[in-house]
């Protein structure tokens, strides 16, 4: 079973207390919807064998007939899970915004702060003032921090540039992160995050700038995988969103959009209409939105960390799951609405506030997270042939302990591309 080729890298992990999130050969799913989200197969007392960067095989310790001498790691009863796939973040940013946090405590709303030139515009000013080198350094440090909390693949957006120069600067930083980090990174182009001050009265001008000037350069340099728009009252309207998504498609950028965070804006419907890979946020979602999602391939991605931090209503995860939809969870890591990329904490919020079970929540940020980045063939579960991006936890009694033990990091070690990092 362990035919060894000496040119290959091998790692055998033995004595795994619980090997979680497994999919048997021939039974792999691209995503889990509705009741399927409760499926979470576990092998107790397991081994896992990695060849190069991929999962080769796994099974019960009692059935393991041969132990190769080299590269054996005794997990001593620890839990192993697929690494988190965080499909929505704004991890590249220049500076924190705790003053706005204090202003919100004192009664200002997120939208009021934005109207006063705070919020996204505040972040854009700070990003403009920062060199590409420094922006890379601070972002790399954040990336390392979330990897230490179990993130094994991530999406990162532009959207704090809001000018051709600074949007490209952000996207180049994301590209450098892609080139230098071991985990897969997908980039989304989010120039349509807010209207910069000089275009507040000239929406047409900013749309033209995005469509005629930024998009061709972004595409030319291959800097983005997805097209994002903050579709929201006071930000980008349905009509503006449609034009932007059509323009993105012309360059092969599929939509992944911000929708229905603050209002019933029609954002979900417009995302579905334009074949978005996912529609993200969804605090404000009702039957019409759910009907639109049914029968589409668009994944509803919930960002409850933002609802938690802004103190607004949570997403109706149960309604979506009951409607047989594939719910995805992501952090939304950004300096305004969710200054945390901590997935274990996200799991706690999903369980306690959205009433997702630990199985549903973990599936939502592993296999369905991978689906929301079109990577579920290679990531998101323990399956033969998938990339060996794994979490090895501290010694914990069960996987449900991860959301239960809130505020603490369950991760002891990470395996990325088959090696310990
Ligand atoms: O996903 N809602 C729009 N964008 C971000 C927040 C951006 C910010 O406040 O800096 C979000 O919540
Ligand atoms: Fe976001």
Describe the secondary-structure layout.
Elements: E1 10-22, E2 41-51, E3 54-60, E4 72-74, E5 79-82, E6 84-86, H1 98-105, H2 110-115, H3 120-128, H4 132-148, E7 151-157, H5 164-180, E8 185-192, H6 203-220, E9 226-231, H7 238-250, E10 254-259, H8 267-273, E11 278-281, H9 287-293, E12 299-302, H10 304-310, H11 317-322, E13 328-329, H12 343-352, H13 358-364, H14 367-372, E14 390-393, H15 401-404, E15 411-416, E16 419-420
Parallel strand pairs: 1-4, 1-5, 6-7, 7-8, 8-9, 9-10, 10-11, 11-12, 12-13
Antiparallel strand pairs: 1-2, 2-3, 5-14, 14-15, 15-16
Bound molecules: N-(iminomethyl)-L-glutamic acid (NIG) and fe (iii) ion.
N-(iminomethyl)-L-glutamic acid binds next to α3.
């Amino acid at each position: 079973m362990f035919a060894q080729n000496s040119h290959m890298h091998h790692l055998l992990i033995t004595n795994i207390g619980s090997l979680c999130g497994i999919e048997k050969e021939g039974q792999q799913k691209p995503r889990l919807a509705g009741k399927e989200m409760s499926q979470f197969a576990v092998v107790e007392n397991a081994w896992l064998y990695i060849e190069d960067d991929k999962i080769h095989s796994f099974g019960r310790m009692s059935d393991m007939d041969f132990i190769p001498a080299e590269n054996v790691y005794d997990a001593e009863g620890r839990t192993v899970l697929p690494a988190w796939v965080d499909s929505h973040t704004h991890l590249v940013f220049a500076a924190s915004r705790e003053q706005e946090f204090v202003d919100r405590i004192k009664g200002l709303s997120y939208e009021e702060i934005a109207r006063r030139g705070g919020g996204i515009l505040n972040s854009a000013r700070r990003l403009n003032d920062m060199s590409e080198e420094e922006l890379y350094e601070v972002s790399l440090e954040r990336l390392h921090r979330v990897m230490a909390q179990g993130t094994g693949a991530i999406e990162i957006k532009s959207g704090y540039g809001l000018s051709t120069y600074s949007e490209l600067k952000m996207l180049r930083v994301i590209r450098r992160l892609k080139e230098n980090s071991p985990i897969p990174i997908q980039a989304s182009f989010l120039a349509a995050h807010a209207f910069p001050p000089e275009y507040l009265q000239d929406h047409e001008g900013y749309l033209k700038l995005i469509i005629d000037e930024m998009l061709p350069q972004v595409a030319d340099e291959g800097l983005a995988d997805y097209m994002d728009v903050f579709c929201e009252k006071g930000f980008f309207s349905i009509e503006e969103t449609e034009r932007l998504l059509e323009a993105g498609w012309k360059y092969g950028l599929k939509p992944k959009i911000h929708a229905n965070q603050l209002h019933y804006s029609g954002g979900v419907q417009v995302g579905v209409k334009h074949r978005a890979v996912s529609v993200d946020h969804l605090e404000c979602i009702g039957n019409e939105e759910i009907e639109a999602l049914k029968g589409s391939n668009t994944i509803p991605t919930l960002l409850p960390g933002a609802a938690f931090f802004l103190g607004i209503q949570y997403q109706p995860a149960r309604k979506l799951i009951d409607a047989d939809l594939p719910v995805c969870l992501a952090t939304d890591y950004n300096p305004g609405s969710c200054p945390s990329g901590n997935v274990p904490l996200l799991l706690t919020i999903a369980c306690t506030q959205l009433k997702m079970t630990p199985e549903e929540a973990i599936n939502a940020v592993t296999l369905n997270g991978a689906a929301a980045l079109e990577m579920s063939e290679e990531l998101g579960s323990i399956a033969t042939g998938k990339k060996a991006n794994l979490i090895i936890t501290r010694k914990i009694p069960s996987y449900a302990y991860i959301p239960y033990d809130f505020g603490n990091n369950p991760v002891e070690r990470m395996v990325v591309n088959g090696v310990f990092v």
